[in-house]
Amino acid sequence: GYPKAEEVGATVCGMLAARLLEGDFVFWFRAPVEKHINWHGAKHSATERDDERLMTPRVSFVAFLEVVRNRSAPWDELEIGAVRSLSIFLRCHLEASKLTNKGGTPEMALVQMLKSVSSPLFSVDTRGCVVAWSEALAAATGLSPADARGRSLLRDLSNEASKKAIAWALTQAMQGMRAREIEVRLRTFGARAAPAAPKPSAGAGAGGALRTFGSSTPSEVVLKVDAVALFTDENGDPLEVPVLEEEEEEEEEEERERARRARGEVTGVCFVGQDMTELKAAEEQFQNMQSDYMAIVHSRNSLIPPIFAINATGECCEWNPAMETLTGLVRSQVLGKLLLGEVFGPLLPMQMAPKLALSVALGQACSAGAPSDRTALCETRRGEPVNGLLTVHPRHALGVGAEGGGGGTGAVCFLHTASEELKEALALQTATEDLAREKVRVTTYVRQQARGPLDGIKHCRAAMQEWPQLAQHAQAQEALEVSIRCEQQITRVLDDEIEEMEEGFLGMESDECKFEQVLRVLASVGHAACPRRTLDFKCEATADMAECPAVQGDPLRLQQALGDFVATAAQFTPEGGWLVLRSIVGDQLAADDHTIGCEFRVLHSSPTGLPEPMVSQMFDNLRSKEDMSQQGLCLGIARRIA
């Protein structure tokens, strides 16, 4: 049904149509575009046979060319949007023309136009009161057209910040000149319509949307508008006379007045533009984020690590104060230079292996958007080595997140180095570990060297036991018995593990023994330790220990614990004093008929007793094992044994 369609049949292929009013349409046509496609794998025909004698591909693999005709280029989103906007404008213009031809005023025609237009439009009369208010503006401000009509634009609807600009635009429009790109800030009233959700883009992933700014309800609506005057002739009919441009402002006042009279009487001013609220909110949020970023990254707080960044071309675009302090290079020396080749290399020497690892990490962050951790090793301008963990993260453009896949616009790097406090703590820990290893080495040496003489003592003791004269001397037998028990105690101690004994694993054994034998060993220890400090030593017992029956227990551990108590008391007794080892045996100490009670007391003439630090070490009241002394360790183990 298109008139003369056969004449354009060969030159027209694609078509786009838009409906205006009833029976009115607008068509856009496109010429066909030929497309050449190379195919591999020709269509098989039953009459074709492959020559089996030839070593060539089958006939069905032969390439062929296809020419696609009667097709046009597809319509893109930009073109469809332009057609939609133009159709809305034409529809509004046609409706206004019809209404004006029926005897309506320009204001009434404008009201009908504003019902269907999607852009923020409004008009005021010569007094500055609203006579037309578009539905789009009503949704943005929360003020319906009926409530807005009759209100003063300057006094009731605009914010204080834009009143001066609105007054200037009204003055310009009343004089017949167009005021362009005026920023108007209007108040909001009541509940606003929720803004339309943005369409997800290709960079937002399969199920994600773009990041939006200013999602909270704003307190004002920001518009960027153009202001034009509405004219009527002497009969009140609207005039469609072009308005004066801004360049004509420099003309003489007489010519401007003549042009204004030619246009007729100004009945109002129309404002048309676009809603910039979301954009302004995004700009403000971006400025706040940028200020927060500058305050954090460029802070000289010791908690902020060294940070540097590159753009998509590999040039350094960030170098914070912590990086300046660490490397000795100021920000102005590195910005705009290639990070690999101009910064790390000539300015900051870096070995080939760390430089290659950094290049790989930066490439992954820029192309694939994958963060990574690398060990960084370079030198400062002062020649000091810099060793730390480098974390590389991708940098993304505003509104594009890492969830969209794809690369970023560069990379940002965080260099984690040890602080001075941490370095001191690590040095102290290393020194402590070295000291512990040295102590273990010395202990191993002493144990190894003590086993040889101990074996010699054992051999001599075995030989002495074969002497026939030994049976005739009771004193010699007692001395040999004490020597044997001291030797057995030394053998047990050389096989002890300090860590296990500190945890309570004492390795107790059970054997038959008598308290008399233990007291003889302790008396030998006391008689040997006290003369070194000119002390008077006594070993007392409340009963005849020889009459006490034999008991089951570990005599070696018992004499080890009591021997440590006696030796420590002798060490902390003032010279010329006295030390007494007293044993109390009685039935009142026994819990039942099958046990015997025995109490050992170490008394000495020190006025203060053991020092307070030594008592704390004996009861393990320490914050750290490093504060434990040798005497405290012996007392702690002796307390556990007892």
From TrEMBL:
GO molecular function: photoreceptor activity
PROSITE patterns: HIS_KIN (PS50109), PAS (PS50112)
Database matches in Gene3D superfamilies: 3.30.450.270, 3.30.450.40, Histidine kinase-like ATPase, C-terminal domain, PAS domain
Domain Histidine kinase: 445-642
Residue ranges of domain PAS in the record: 106-177, 289-346
Keywords: Chromophore, Photoreceptor protein, Receptor, Sensory transduction, Transcription, Transcription regulation
Name assigned to this protein: Phytochrome
